[in-house]
Design goal:
Immunoglobulin-like; four-stranded mixed sheet; 14 strands
Length: about 220
């Protein structure tokens, strides 16, 4: 092969690599996960969420435990874990907890922290702490000092939901709390209960993936 041919081959190879890198970066930057906004009500913004033991059948990881954004009646389900909330505002959050009890490895996170009044409403009853053995998940925003333990239905409950989407007729616990959002910014939220079935020590997989057991609070 001549010197000119070798140079041409190198140039073509570099050009192909550059094109592939440009495509990869373009896809990565534009493939942002979806976002759900709080619903505006006369009492202020209200965000409705749900947790399930398994995502929808057509999901990329249908066996992964996950959070969803839902409608007030839990009939419209969106697999989004980025939530858009107004800045410097008291926001109400309702979580329909369909996943069964996992239990906590650290009893400290069984205590409610960072909510208005220091409590949550568990099926209409105000509580500041839940039995660690009854916890299913956690909704925590460490940057804001927010920690909300989510009690789940017992494994022997009637009519458990096995996979999203679920119905309010399925066994579930309803947790409602309020917290004040900070100034504009992007804040990470996460579940700290090791609930990733099939992964070592229950971590990894959905526990470490935005779109399942963690995501972002986008304050605007």
């Amino acid at each position: 092969m001549s010197h000119a041919s070798r140079i041409a081959g190198v140039v073509i190879g570099v050009a192909v690599v550059c094109v592939l890198l440009a495509l990869y970066i373009g896809i990565y930057l534009t493939a942002a996960p979806g976002a759900a906004s709080a619903i505006q009500t006369p009492a202020g913004p209200h965000l409705y969420l749900a947790t399930v033991p398994q995502a929808e059948p057509g999901d990329a990881h249908p066996t992964w435990v996950s959070y969803y954004a839902v409608s007030p009646t839990s009939t419209d389900w969106r697999h989004d874990t980025t939530y858009v909330l107004p800045a410097n505002t008291v926001v109400t959050v309702t979580v329909y907890e369909y996943d069964t009890q996992t239990g906590l490895r650290n009893n400290f996170i069984g205590a409610v922290q960072g909510t208005v009044g220091g409590t949550i409403d568990l099926n209409g009853k105000p509580v500041s702490y839940i039995d660690p053995d009854t916890a299913s998940h956690i909704f925590a925003i460490p940057q804001l000092g927010l920690n909300v333990p989510l009690e789940g239905p017992g494994s022997n409950a009637h009519n458990l939901c096995a996979q999203a989407p679920c119905s309010l007729s399925n066994a579930h616990e309803t947790i409602t709390f309020r917290f004040r959002t900070p100034g504009k910014g992007l804040y990470r939220w996460q579940c700290f209960v090791p609930c990733a079935l099939g992964f070592i020590n229950g971590v990894g997989g959905p526990m470490a993936t935005v779109g399942y057991m963690d995501g972002y609070i986008k304050v605007v």
